[in-house]
Amino acid sequence: MNTKEFFEKVLASQALSDEQIRTLSEHREEVEGYLREKFGQEPTIRYAGSKAKGTMIAESYDLDLTCYFPSSKDKTLKEIHDEVQKVLSIKYSIEPKASAVRIKRIDNDMETDYHIDVVPGRFVEGNDGDAFLHVTYGEKERMQTNIDTHITYVKESGCQSIIKLVKLWKVRNNVPIKTFVMEIAVVETLKGSRDKDDLAKSLREVLTRLRDEMESMRLEDPANSNNIVSEVVSVSDKNTIAIRAAEALQILKDNERDELAGWQKVFDEESETNKWSGPTVITNPSKPHCDI
């Protein structure tokens, strides 16, 4: 097996099973049905996130459901957010997030993760396009964005396979970077690249930028340049991200004579002849390309 075949195998292994898809679909229909029961046809409910972008992986997946009310809704963003959260908490065990509500359910004292995040919001105008979201923490209480722009941004980037691989690396190495921030970092790093199909080369470029520039990187929401999404990552998390990227690159350097073995170690995919004891620990990653 060569490196190209390895990545193809990894990506194939991260396709959701028929059972996962069926269960997710059933949960989605249940949650949407419940929201319709409580709010009628007023909100627009639709897919967003990795499902709509084509970047979902089996090892860690969420289904984002936007629940946007028309601009004529006579309530503040906070009131809309709190009302949707309150309604969901009647039926489900929930986990509040920055601008979304994570759905779980308790059956027979067992908590089941539905892998669904409901994102309440209100359209800026009418019943489509840009929307305002309430943000529960941070300096801003609201954010203007557009899910259609996000979906198009990723779909037209040519980076979906790379995003899936970086997402898997993030999950398996406990990298504290939010998926949306990671997606933008990948797309912006590889913008203009003619070698996106060369997954090994592209991944090296992404890891190198995360190592060298994560602490100073400025990443904007493609739907609203006023949203600097890199600012939602704490200084300590940025440092950890840079360290994890440096560890991965060091593993590849240590395995220059066997690139496949290096990538197997980076993704914790052990072969019978390649047993790995863990990542190389780097406390101060070098930044040869960062002039700061």
Topology, element by element:
Blueprint: H1 3-13, H2 18-39, E1 44-48, H3 49-53, E2 63-69, H4 77-91, E3 93-96, E4 101-107, E5 110-123, E6 131-134, E7 142-145, H5 147-155, H6 160-172, H7 179-190, H8 199-213, E8 220-221, E9 224-228, H9 235-254, H10 259-266
Parallel strand pairs: 2-5
Antiparallel strand pairs: 1-2, 3-4, 4-5, 5-6, 6-7, 8-9
Helix pairs in contact: 6-7, 6-8, 7-8, 8-9, 9-10
Structural account:
The chain folds into two domains: 16-146, Beta Polymerase, domain 2 (2-Layer Sandwich); 157-292, Poly(a)-polymerase, middle domain (Orthogonal Bundle). Helix 6 (160-172) packs across helix 7 (179-190), helix 7 (179-190) packs across helix 8 and helix 9 (235-254) packs antiparallel against helix 10. It has 292 residues and is α+β, with helices and mostly antiparallel strands. It is 45% helix and 18% strand. The strands form two sheets. Strands 1, 2, 3, 4, 5, 6 and 7 form a seven-stranded mixed sheet that branches. Strands 8-9 form a two-stranded antiparallel ribbon. The chain is built from ten helices and nine strands. Strand 6 (131-134) and strand 7 form a beta hairpin. The longest helix has 22 residues, at 18-39. It has helices at 3-13, 18-39, 49-53, 77-91, 147-155, 160-172, 179-190, 199-213, 235-254, 259-266; strands at 44-48, 63-69, 93-96, 101-107, 110-123, 131-134, 142-145, 220-221, 224-228.
